[in-house]
Each structure stands twice: as structure tokens, then as C-alpha cells.
Amino acid sequence: MIEIGHFALVLAFALALVQSVVPLVGARRNDVRMMGVAAPAAITGFALTALAFVALLSAFAQSDFSVVNVWENSHSLKPMLFKITGAWGSHEGSMLLWVLILTFFGALVAAFGGNLPDTLKANVLAVQGFIGATFFLFILTTSNPFARIDPAPIEGRDLNPILQDIGLAVHPPMLYLGYVGFSVCFSFAVAALIEGRIDAAWARWVRPWTLAAWMFLTGGIAMGSYWAYYELGWGGFWFWDPVENASFMPWLAGTALLHSAVVMEKRSALKIWTLLLAILTFSLSLLGTFLVRSGVLTSVHAFATDPSRGVFILGILTLFIGGSLLLFALRAHSLTAGGLFHPISREGALVLNNLFLTTAAATVLIGTLYPLLMEAIAGSKISVGAPFFDMTFIPLVIPLLFAVPFGPLLAWKRGDLYGAAQRLAFAFGGALVVALLVLMMRERGSAFAAAGIGLAAWMMLGALTDLFVKAGIPRVSASTGLRRLTGLPRSMFGTALAHFGIGMTVLGIVSVAAFGTESIATMKKGDTLDVGGRHLRFDGLRPQTGPNFTAQTGTFVLDDGSTVESSKRFYPVRQMPTTEAGIKTLIFSQIYVQLGDETPDGGIVVHAWWKPLVTLIWLGGLVMMAGAAVSLSDRRLRVGAPSARRARSAATGSAGA
Amino acid sequence: MFFWVAAALLTFAASLAVLMPLSRKAEGTGASPNEINVYRDQLAEVERDVSRGILAREEAEQARAEIGRRILRAGDGEAASKRGKGGAAFRIAGAAAVVSIPLVSWGLYAMLGSPNLPEQPLSARMTRDPSTNTPAELVARAESQLAANPDDLRGWDVLAPIYIKMQRFDDAVSAYRNALRLGGSSAIRQAGLGEALVYQSGGLITKEAQAAFEQALKDTPEMPKARFFLAMAKAQEGQTDQAASEWKQLTASLPQDDPWREASQTMLARTAPGPNEEQAQAAEQMNPADRTAMIEQMVASLDSKLRENPNDLEGWQRLVRSYLVLGKERDAADALSRGVTALGAGTMAAKQLSDFAAAQGMKVEP
């Protein structure tokens, strides 16, 4: 099975080579048969990659230590779930997951791209095939997950204990679905540049892909943030760590792309800009994958210890980012620009959004790469941390967040800012009241808290206002309003949900920053600690034994008698300790308990945080995902949907669309 | 065999995926879908928005007019698409594409793959006939049985000396301790524990090891292993004469081929005072240099280990301290900065390392 998987991977590489050349030639010669190779090659390539992936999974599940990758990253005593997730816990396995998703998306385009123009489809799949071929070659030559050892060791070296968590089962696949989803947008952009024209089908296709990729990326980032929060034991949810920034940059660019694609689809405007954004977004995704995967972040020198891998990675980055931007420079002028619009209009608002988001992405990029450049050029190690981002990124996004509720209320082509402001008066008033209430709070009320929470309230109320205004509430009667509300297109609900979700996230972040409290004490059994007005009684430590670790678990009792357990684990194979924070969720807020070192006199240092409304940070992410999903389910976005709508009358049309 | 059949079938399927579309009849493929469909959808959307009251009537008029203009433009751009032509160039290119699949895949696999290496799932290795297992596999099997049934005295008794032979001294110590816990004190177990402890601490007879050997002698006063190591303990304490006399007794009392007799003779030769005092002096002079060389070698190996596996706070602490002991302050500072970088500047671990270095008297930048 292992060698069959290995062979399937090699075969998928050969097929990807053919897929990247033959359809491209076919499209140039307008040869239907050569273009026809693209779809079956893409689908077969996916099947082969899936076979390879299953082979690797089974090697991990069976603890076959004759596979180097299994030996280095698994242990026979690990629970089955972590054995399987360990398959993508290593560099090699995660790259295989990456190409699996890449070929999966290629196969989707091949299978459902029936209504795409032949040449566009052939070009898109050729570009997709080329990306695939490059990555297959990278995997096979520098990071082969199927390398073997003989004789096989009897026991593995175990996976990094921090990764032995349910988070590994969800976070990387979601993140990669997001990263790689943008590869489809990239392929469409490059195909359009090769063809020298952007037609209407182009915009129709790019938008749902962007939406899907954005949805997964949002989920992946939110999941990763929550994982870091409960696993790393510092109680923080975002560290401006380069690894986090690596996923955040494509998210910012992808969000911009999402909005510009709307303009492009509706108004045929901003075509060239959208195309550039599609290229940039995937470029940032590639950069993100490699920043995390190449080890360049630990140290530029660590990166240089394995030159073959490092040079290959730099080559891939140069090839795709440089190549696509060069193509853009050569061909962009041949594309026709689209419709015109007044600065104050929905298009104008979306351009504003794009300006802010791309600037924000550029800020994060500079903050992330600057230390690396400094280290490479000057040899000195500096770190750009939270203060830099707090000073640059946050002032940038605040005006953007403030402007969000206006966008959806402006009309296309020529909008009425005053009218939109009037309609938002209720939301603005509500936010003002909330801010004043916060300011008047007897304890810890501050201008910062008032402004932040007011902003969050403004965004959430603004999102609701958008829906109500579109339904005509309160101008029309309640029943008509309700009927109209349920009849609104799903994409409008999607917009409102996503904007509401951002408001929730902002609310969570501001609440924790403004009202969170932290207490540290050395506790013995029976001692009580005050946490955010609640009492935590320490009920003693007890030893525990897990399948591949030993642990000290402390039990804490809250006022209402419920318990929180926090533990410190030790994984003997890797000689590594981990901490398992004790977390108690009270509606949206959480109590977070972390064990420190034991003191000689038998006590233990306990670190406890009160995190008001902290879960809203991630729930907001889930709501954003839901918004994207609702928007995706709008049948107008689904390409290839039969045009049954013409048969429908206007009355029934409002019920189902 | 199964592998080769499967590989051949996969290659065939992949080649077919390329061959089939290329060998289709040139004409009669579906017409390229028209861009106008998209615009028609957009028009229908405008209608629906109007009927829902989302779009004002005059805005809808404008939108319709704009979509109409796009439809006109799209009609202009329609080019007559050519169908595939036959021709020699096409046939050669197609054949090359099809043939490249088996060529590339089999060629590359021949370089990378290990087709003859069988799979080795752990459970199968653990359950097959023990006579075909390697020694390491046998130990692992015994270990997994002991993990399931940790009170199996015989298992620990058998495994403990094997661990010493495999130089897994930590495991040997815990195995002897388990055997002592389950089976009570015996000369063999106590002396074994002592021996494992000595190897664990790199040859030093620790207090604990000495106690174990003494316990063994209470049981079996003549036990050579215990006597040998107790003599060694005396030697390490500087009581060379006593040690030598005990080794002499041991040599005299043991039969010719006993391994402990040989070991005693060797030790005796090293400690024996007498005519070759010059040699002893030379050895004494040489020893510190040797020792330093040995220590330096150990430090270098720790250093290279940390380069490979840098996420190891304790390792960095040991390295920094070692360099300081050797008087290599610059190396220590270098190790500190590398350690901080590897652990991630600003993290708890990096801070612990800096604090540690400061406690050793190094200057540490805040």
C-alpha cells in the first residue's frame, strides 16, 4: 500500500506535467481535442493524489515505522485520532495534504466547469496543473513522505506534544482549503491574462471560489487562534506571531478580493484590479505556506541548514509571484476596463474597503518580513512584535470598520451618502447609547472601552439595519416587512451576517482588553483565589497517566460548585512538557486557569484570568463563515445552475431564491 | 507482485485519461457555451430585485440598459472557433503526451521508490513468530506485555539485564526497581540495580549504588559483582590501597575465566603503585588534557545536537554552562544568543535561558 501510494504520487506528477502543457497548446491552437485533455487529467490526478494520501494515512494508522515520516512523527501509544492527524503534522505530510486539496479543487473545476468557455477552462486547468506539477516535484525531491528505512525501528519518535490535539485535526485542513482555494482564483486570473480578455463568465466563477476559500480561511484562522489560546497557556488569542501573520495576510487580501469581485460581477468594473488582487492573494497564500513550512521563521540560518529545500522554495515563490506579476505587466493593458461609477456609490465604498485592506495587508507584510530581511542582510536579530502592529494596523482598520455599515446601504453607480446616514441614524444612536453606558460604568469604564464597544455595537446594529432597510421596515406594515425580509436574496443575508460577525469579534477583543482581569497566587489545597469577582477554591493536585504522557491535574471549585481542571503534562518520548489550561465557559465569558511551578513548601503557582465575552472573538469568526456559506448557497452564485428562473413568476421567485 | 500489477493498472488508467480525449473524433464536440447566458441571468436578477422592491424602477432601467450594451459587445467579439485539426504535428504531440506518462512515472519511481521493501505494520511485527523477530522487536514485545501487565515480575527480571546490554541505563534502573518492588530484595537484583546506576551516572559510584551493592553483599557475601564495584567506590574515594587489596582478594578467589576476575586484574594494573612511578606521573599529567579533550568533544556533540533540535531549553542551559566552565566566554555568549533565537525571542523559555545565563554571571542584554 505504501509503495502503491508512492507510485501514485509519482504518476500524479507525470499527469500534472501533461495537464499543464497539452491544454495550453490546445487553447492557443483552438484545438478542442487537446483542450479536452485538461478535465480527465485533472480528475485522474486528484484520484491518484487521494490514493497517495490514503496510503500515508494507513501507514500512520498502522504505525509502520519503515516509513521515515511515520517513524519521525508517530508513536505506537498515541490515540488513533492523533496517529491519523499526525499524518499532516509533519512538513512532508502537510505538503501532501496541500497538493491533495489543490488537485481536489482542480477536479471540481474540471467536473463542474461545463458552462465555461473551452479555452478559458483549458487555460485555468493548465495553470492549476502547473502549480500542481511544481509542488509534486518539490515533494518528491525534497520532502518525500514515502521515504523508507530498512531495518525499520521498533518505536517512533512521537509527534510534538503541542500538536497532539483535536486542533490539528481541524485547523490545517481548513487553513489549506482556504490557502489553496485562492489558487483557483489565481489560475483564473493567469488564464485571463494568457487569453488577453476577461469575459462575464470569469467574474461569475471567481466570486464563489473566493467566497469558499475565504470561508475556510476565516474558519482556519479562528480555529488556530482558539487552539493557541487554550493550548499555549498564556491566555492570549493573537500574538502577531509571523506564523499567524502568514495566514492573516491572505485573509486581508482575500477579503479585498471578495469585495472587488462583487463590483466586477455586478458592474464589470475594477476588472484589472480584481485580477491583480487574485494574483496577490494567492501569492500571499504561497508565502504563508512557506514561511511556516520552510523553517525560515526560526532563523534564516535554520532555513539555510537544508539548502535544497530552501532553494526550491525560493524558486517556487519567484516563479509564481514574479512570473504572474510579469505576465500581468505585459498583458494588463490589453484588457478592457469596465463600467464607470461615481465616487460615492457602492463601488466607491468597495474601493475604499480595498484600499484599506490592501494597505493593512502591506503593513502586516512589512512587519513580518522586515526582521527576516534584517537578519539576512545585517545579521542582527530584531523582533517586530505587538507594539508595531498595534500602532500601525489598528489605526488603519478603525476607519474601515466604521465605514462598513455604510457600504451595503449605498446604491450602485451613484449613491446618496446623506440618505444612507439617515437610515443608519438608529444604529448610530444605539451605538452611542451603548458607548455612554460603558463610559458610566463605575469600575473600569474608560474612553477606550467606550469607543471600542460603541464601534462593535455600531457594526452589529448597522448590519441589522441593512437588512431591515432592504425589507422596507418600518415604512411598510409588519407582515409585508417580514415577508420581504424572508424574501431577500441570500447573498444579502450573507453580507449582513459577515459584517455582524466582525462586530462580534471586535466586541470580544475590546471586552477582554478592557475588562479582563488576571490574578496569580501560590495556592495550597483549600485556598481560594478571586477571579473577576468569582471565587476559585483549589481542591488539590493529583497525578494522572495518559496513553503517552503523565500529568499533574489540579481541580478547582467555583462558587456554584462546578469544577475546572487544569493540568501539566509530560511527554517522555520527546521529553517535553505541555500545559492543559482549565477553561470554564460562562455564557460568552470564560475563566482560564493555568498551573505554574510547584513551590518547595507544597504549594503551586496558579495563574487565573477572567476573560469577559472572550468566546465572541471566535464565535464572530463562525458567524462570518456562516455568512459566507449563506451567500454561497445563493443560487445566483452557483455557476451552471439551470435557468429555471425564467419559468418562475415573480411571485414564486421571492420564496425560494 | 501485487505492487507491480497495481502500478501497471494505475499507469494504464492515467495514460487513458490523456489518450481518450485526444483520440476523440475531431468534430461533433459540444459548442462553447455562450457568454450571453450569463447576461441573461443578470437580466433575470434585475427583474427579481424589482419585483421584491429592492431596486427602484429607474435604477432597474439603467441596469437593463447597461447589461444590454454588454450583450451587444459580447456579440461582436464572438469569433468562429476552429475545430481540432489532424495533421502530423498533432499526432506526434499527442503521442508524446501519452507516452510521457509511463516514461516519467516509471523513471522517477525507479529512482525514488523501494518496491521490494514490504510493509511493516507494528501490530503484525508484534504478533508474528518470535523466532523471526529482531532482538529490538523482542524487547518491544516484552515491553508492550509489561505495559499491559506491569506486575509481571519475571518480565522485569528478564528485561533488566538486556537493557544494560543495550545501554538503555535509565530503563534498566527502572526495570530493576520494579523487580525489587515486586519480588523483594535479592543479591542479583540489588547488584544489578547498582550496576545500572553506575552506568547511568557515567561510571561514578553514587551513594545509592553503593547502598545497593552493600545490600547485595548482605544477601550473598561473596558476590563478585558487588565486591568489584565496592572496591571501585573505594578507589574513587582515594583509598587506592584498600581498593587494590580488595581487587587482589577478588582475583585470588575467582576461577580463571570469570569476567570479574579479568576486570579486577585490569583495575589492579591501573592502580598498582611501584616501579613505574614515572608512567603514573605521565598518566597523571596527561589525564587533565585527555579529560579536557573528552569534555570538549562532549560539548561539541551537544552543540551539534542543538543545531538539529534547537527547541530544548535544558540543552541550551547545559551548553552555556559548559562553555563557561571551559572558560570559553565568547562561545557561551554565542550559544546564549542562538538559544534565545531558537526558543523564540520573547518567549518564556528564552527568558528562562537568559535568566539562567545571568545567574551564571554572564552579561545579558535586557
TrEMBL record, chain A:
Any GO CC annotation of this UniProt entry: plasma membrane
Superkingdom classification of source: Bacteria
Primary location group: membrane
Membrane spanning stretches: 6-25, 37-61, 95-112, 124-141, 174-194, 206-228, 248-265, 272-291, 311-330, 351-373, 393-412, 424-441, 447-469, 490-515, 613-632
Listed GO MF terms: heme binding; heme transmembrane transporter activity; lyase activity
Alphabetical list of NCBIfam families matching this protein: nrfE, PRK10369.1
Function: Required for the biogenesis of c-type cytochromes. Possible subunit of a heme lyase.
Protein name: Heme lyase CcmF/NrfE family subunit
Organism name: Mesorhizobium denitrificans
Automatic annotation (TrEMBL), chain B:
Signal peptide: 1-26
Superkingdom of source: Bacteria
UniProt keyword Repeat, yes or no: yes
Pfam families in the cross-refs: TPR_CcmH_CycH
GO biological process: cytochrome complex assembly
Primary location group: other
InterPro entries in UniProt: C-type_cytochrome_biogenesis, Cyt_c_biogenesis_CcmI, TPR-like_helical_dom_sf, TPR_CcmH_CycH, TPR_rpt
Annotated compartments: Cell envelope
Keyword Repeat in annotation: yes
Domain Cytochrome c-type biogenesis protein H TPR: 144-259
Intervals holding TPR repeats: 153-186
Name of the protein described by the UniProt record: C-type cytochrome biogenesis protein CcmI
Organism field: Mesorhizobium denitrificans
Gene: ccmI
